[in-house]
Amino acid sequence: MKIRFIRRIGAILSRAYDIIIWAFVEKKPVRLSNGNCEVTKLTIEVLVKQGVPEVFDFDIPDERLNHYLKKSCVAVDTETRGLNLRRDRLCLVQICDEDGLVSFVRFRDRHKLPYTGDSNLKKLFTAPNVIKLFHFARFDVSVMKYYLDIDVNPIWCTKIASKLVRTYTDKHSLKYLVAELLEIQLDKSDQMSDWAKDDLTDSQLEYAANDVRVLIPVQKKLEAILQREGRSDIAKRLFQTLPLVCELDQMGFKDIFEH
């Protein structure tokens, strides 16, 4: 009886494994026999575990710059040693386009920062034809300015858009946005980790890549809601004020519009 039971469990586990592998290889949605679980179709509109992104030192190469300059929008994120701009230096910049091509730029040598020279990153992040998409752009744009002397523009921020249209909640972190709009649970366990260490773990690399992979799909959902609610124009104007807000932050002015 025990042997039969073990064989039965083994067969069930084997079948479940085959279904999951088939879904990932064939890129098709699968509904399991009980009808209660669905494996999401793998497209660039949802979070997927793709190949390990290429990691570049201090800048992206010309080939990668030219590729991104042909896009209308690129998703961008940064990883730092913490949240204090002057104390916690820039360690990593992540970039992703609508095709899911992710690039990492690492800043290993703290003695090279802040950097005020020209770079391909500066060319990309100041290109007027490419929207730079962030979640909580206020922080990332300030980091870019302080450590790389880049005046990022034009800007689109999913956190600002979320606050304009998701007025039924106070939860506007990327984790909650992705859960609601894409129905995906992001693993944020590496959010608070050491991004300056020599060898980043596979878990850190996956976390950093996924944070930019989801931004363009999230933006598309938010754009539709902004348009539906008649708030697209106010969102656009708010995005345009972000560089000024970041400049005020760096000068130490907080809540300047308060009484």
Q: What is the domain tally?
A: 2
Low-confidence stretches: 11-46
Shape: globular
Describe the largest sheet: 6 strands, mixed
Helix content: 40-55%
CATH class of the largest domain: Alpha Beta
The helix-strand sequence is HEEEHEEEHEHEHHHHH
What's the CATH architecture of the largest domain? 2-Layer Sandwich
Radius of gyration: 21 Å
Distance between the termini: 77 Å
| SSE class | alpha/beta
β-strand amount: 5-15%
**CATH topology (level 3) name of the largest domain:** Nucleotidyltransferase, domain 5
- The count of β-strands is 8
Provide the spatial order of strands within the biggest beta sheet.
3-6-5-4-7-8
* The named CATH superfamily of the largest domain: Ribonuclease H-like superfamily/Ribonuclease H
Can you give a write-up of this model?
The structure is a single chain. By secondary structure, this protein is α/β, with parallel strands linked by helices. The protein has 2 domains: about 1-40, no CATH class; about 55-250, Nucleotidyltransferase, domain 5 (2-Layer Sandwich). It contains 9 helices and 8 strands. Strands 3-6-5-4-7-8 form a 6-stranded mixed β-sheet, sandwiched between helices. The chain is globular, with a radius of gyration of 21 Å. Mean pLDDT is about 85; it is low at about 10-45.
Walk me through the topology.
Layout: H1 2-26, E1 30-31, E2 38-39, E3 54-57, H2 62-69, E4 73-80, E5 90-96, E6 102-106, H3 120-125, E7 131-134, H4 137-148, E8 155-157, H5 158-165, H6 174-181, H7 202-213, H8 215-228, H9 232-251
Parallel strand pairs: 3-6, 4-7, 7-8
Antiparallel strand pairs: 1-2, 4-5, 5-6
Helix pairs in contact: 4-9, 5-8
